Amino acid sequence: MKRIGILGGTFDPPHIGHLIIAEEVRETLNLEEVWFIPSYEPPHKQKAHVNSETRVEMVERAISGNPHFRISTIEVNRLGKSYTFDTMKALTDENPDVQFYFIIGADMVEYLPYWNHIDDLLNLVMFVGVKRRGYAFKTDYPILEVDVPLIELSSTDIRQRALKNKSIKYMVNSGVEAYLKEKHLYEDR
Ligand SMILES: Nc1ncnc2c1ncn2[C@@H]1O[C@H](COP(=O)(O)OP(=O)(O)OP(=O)(O)O)[C@@H](O)[C@H]1O
Ligand SMILES: O=C(O)c1ccc[n+]([C@@H]2O[C@H](COP(=O)([O-])O)[C@@H](O)[C@H]2O)c1
């Protein structure tokens, strides 16, 4: 079986926390690749601040340069609410030779009981949790924990900094930083 990691997210915008957890989990679990899947509409929180085409462009820029990282547009192509069960059902049907490892931060570990079709989803993927400041890593589900450096960054922080015209250098990669500036994303308009 091939071993592939999945990092689903809103990526509004993608930041170095996403890249570091994906790379750490890839290396620790010896995964061939990690696929980044931007959601069209997050199932559990408010709509993203920028449209899905823009978030896809940002993820492409964020992952460029890492030959193990790919993007899948399965959720933005499907439209509607991006339930992970629907996505992973389609991906496991299309790729019967792959064991998928679905990477989540500790905020999502706590939220797992509320995911759509969580029991069926647990039969499709192995969840991999990483720690995140402010969230206890507590769950009754059988998930793998991978130790990663604690990155105190969120997309919310980046949006707030952009709004206040504060530097986001090194918090997002340079391609994403240039794109945010060029398109004036998240700025006060
Ligand atoms: N700094 C981080 N440390 C650990 N996990 C993270 C970190 N940032 C994001 N993640 C995880 O990456 C996945 C995608 O996150 P998402 O795109 O929603 O970013 P976010 O920073 O949580 O966004 P927002 O602040 O807008 O809610 C989620 O599983 C989330 O838990
Ligand atoms: O399917 C669900 O019910 C579900 C509920 C909460 C989160 N998720 C997925 O978890 C991933 C991280 O979510 P987010 O909003 O932090 O980007 C993303 O792929 C979401 O679609 C999925």
Automatic annotation (TrEMBL):
<dbReference type="InterPro" id="IPR004821">
    <property type="entry name" value="Cyt_trans-like"/>
</dbReference>
<dbReference type="GO" id="GO:0005524">
    <property type="term" value="F:ATP binding"/>
</dbReference>
<comment type="pathway">
    <text>Cofactor biosynthesis; NAD(+) biosynthesis; deamido-NAD(+) from nicotinate D-ribonucleotide: step 1/1.</text>
</comment>
<feature type="domain" description="Cytidyltransferase-like">
    <location>
        <begin position="6"/>
        <end position="161"/>
    </location>
</feature>
<keyword id="KW-0548">Nucleotidyltransferase</keyword>
<dbReference type="GO" id="GO:0009435">
    <property type="term" value="P:NAD+ biosynthetic process"/>
</dbReference>
<dbReference type="Pfam" id="PF01467">
    <property type="entry name" value="CTP_transf_like"/>
</dbReference>
<comment type="function">
    <text>Catalyzes the reversible adenylation of nicotinate mononucleotide (NaMN) to nicotinic acid adenine dinucleotide (NaAD).</text>
</comment>
<comment type="similarity">
    <text>Belongs to the NadD family.</text>
</comment>
<dbReference type="InterPro" id="IPR005248">
    <property type="entry name" value="NadD/NMNAT"/>
</dbReference>
<dbReference type="InterPro" id="IPR014729">
    <property type="entry name" value="Rossmann-like_a/b/a_fold"/>
</dbReference>
<keyword id="KW-0520">NAD</keyword>
<keyword id="KW-0662">Pyridine nucleotide biosynthesis</keyword>
<keyword id="KW-0808">Transferase</keyword>
<keyword id="KW-0067">ATP-binding</keyword>
<protein>
    <recommendedName>
        <fullName>Probable nicotinate-nucleotide adenylyltransferase</fullName>
        <ecNumber>2.7.7.18</ecNumber>
    </recommendedName>
</protein>
<dbReference type="GO" id="GO:0004515">
    <property type="term" value="F:nicotinate-nucleotide adenylyltransferase activity"/>
</dbReference>
<keyword id="KW-0547">Nucleotide-binding</keyword>
